[in-house]
Task: inverse folding
């Protein structure tokens, strides 16, 4: 089987056998995972396919591209000695060594043996086969005509009986349709991987503001999996983005060309905006006010992009809100808001999962704090039951510690410092409305006063 040679920093990391299809990228769902903290390798970067008797590498619209000898390519045929660069990695191709011993393609394709004159000269001449003596055919035996008629009638009856039996059996037991073949597990896994790839591509298109292309990808996912919740959420984001009003363009009314105005002395015009990223100057805005507003908008835009790179959707949305106050619809702020909302949803889910882990570790206060934070990020998350259960465990543990502190305080067996520590732990766990907090607080003050 041919091999894919993976090199990094001029050292071979590994060799991977190439089947008929091989997916390459940073995500763990790929067949070949290329770890790259600098993200020079995209999550789903490229794919190797077997086409027309050879292996072809296809770039999957990666962010940083696929390169051969300094030239960015979208597809190429893999050949020995050609190095393909993906991020910090170089990929080489080694064909299957067993193919060299294969028969000539013409003979294998057409199914005939190639004539070799040298071998034919070495073979001994074959002796001619003896001509067989013809044997006269047997003479037909005469059959009486009456016997021929009886045999014909009997054969006809047998044929009719067999045909009737077959028709009767077919009517009694009609053929049952064969059940459709069950989908193989490998095909189901491949379909899930394709859906994940399509959703990642839709998110990338949304981040770049290409809502129309993202909608086509999402529709394809929903056609294959109508119950996909993530695809439905992305489709709602696309609909919301399409519903946002676009900036009005100045209308050009048709009519006769007016006469050129007479030259008059006019006030000097405002400075022309040279940078395409600058905000347009308002008619009644002074130069100083425009420069201050332009600087604020550009600073917040850069800060929002940095927050999105750090996957902090909440901070990115706060900067985008400041941009909308000064210049609504600035550059790609609308699509960035959609992407930031997706980041906030993912951040809320991570915070919720952290609360679940803290609850399993019996860290009740941390679990409650994480649940409340997750609800602040995404109000659709139902955390009420989780918080109630965590508070109940927290109160029960506080009361157990309080009983232990009282027993040691009453009957001895521990120092005042140890008893004070138990009272403090109990007060930290008990809710503010618990009736036993007042007594524990008074006893703690008494013990502290003795020290």
Result:
């Amino acid at each position: 089987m041919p091999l894919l040679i993976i090199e990094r920093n001029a050292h071979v990391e590994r060799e991977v056998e190439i089947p008929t299809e091989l997916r390459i990228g940073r995500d763990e769902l790929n067949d070949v995972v290329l770890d790259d903290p600098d993200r020079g390798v995209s999550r789903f970067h490229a794919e190797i396919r077997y086409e027309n008797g050879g292996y072809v590498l296809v770039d999957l619209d990666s962010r940083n591209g696929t390169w051969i000898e300094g030239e960015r390519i979208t597809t190429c045929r893999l050949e020995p000695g050609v190095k393909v660069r993906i991020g910090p990695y170089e990929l080489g191709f080694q064909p299957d060594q067993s193919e060299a011993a294969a028969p000539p393609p013409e003979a294998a394709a057409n199914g005939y043996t190639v004539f070799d004159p040298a071998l034919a000269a070495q073979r001994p001449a074959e002796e001619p086969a003896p001509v067989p003596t013809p044997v006269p055919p047997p003479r037909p035996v005469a059959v009486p005509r009456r016997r021929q008629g009886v045999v014909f009638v009997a054969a006809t009856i047998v044929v009719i009986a067999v045909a009737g039996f077959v028709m009767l059996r077919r009517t009694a037991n009609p053929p049952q349709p064969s059940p459709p073949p069950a989908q193989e597990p490998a095909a189901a896994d491949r379909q899930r991987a394709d859906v994940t790839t399509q959703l990642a591509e839709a998110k990338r298109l949304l981040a770049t503001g290409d809502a129309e292309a993202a909608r086509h990808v999402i529709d394809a996912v929903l056609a294959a999996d109508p119950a996909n919740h993530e695809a439905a959420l992305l489709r709602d984001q696309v609909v919301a983005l399409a519903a946002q009003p676009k900036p009005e363009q100045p209308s050009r009314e048709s009519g006769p060309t007016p006469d050129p105005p007479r030259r008059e002395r006019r006030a000097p015009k405002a400075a022309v905006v040279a940078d395409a990223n600058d905000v347009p100057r308002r008619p009644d805005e002074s130069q100083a006010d425009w420069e201050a507003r332009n600087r604020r908008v550009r600073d917040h835009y850069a800060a929002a992009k940095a927050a999105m790179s750090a996957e902090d959707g909440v901070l990115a949305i706060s900067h985008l809100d400041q941009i909308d106050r000064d210049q609504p619809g600035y550059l790609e702020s609308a699509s960035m808001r959609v992407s930031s909302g997706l980041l906030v949803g993912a951040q809320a889910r991570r915070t919720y999962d952290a609360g679940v882990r803290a609850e399993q570790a019996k860290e009740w206060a941390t679990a409650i704090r994480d649940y409340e934070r997750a609800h602040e990020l995404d109000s659709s998350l139902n955390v009420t039951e989780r918080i109630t259960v965590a508070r109940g465990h927290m109160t029960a543990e506080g009361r157990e510690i309080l009983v232990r502190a009282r027993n040691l305080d009453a009957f001895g067996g521990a120092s005042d410092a140890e008893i004070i520590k138990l009272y403090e732990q109990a007060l930290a766990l008990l809710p503010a409305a618990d009736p036993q907090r007042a007594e524990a607080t008074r006893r703690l003050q008494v013990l502290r006063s003795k020290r």
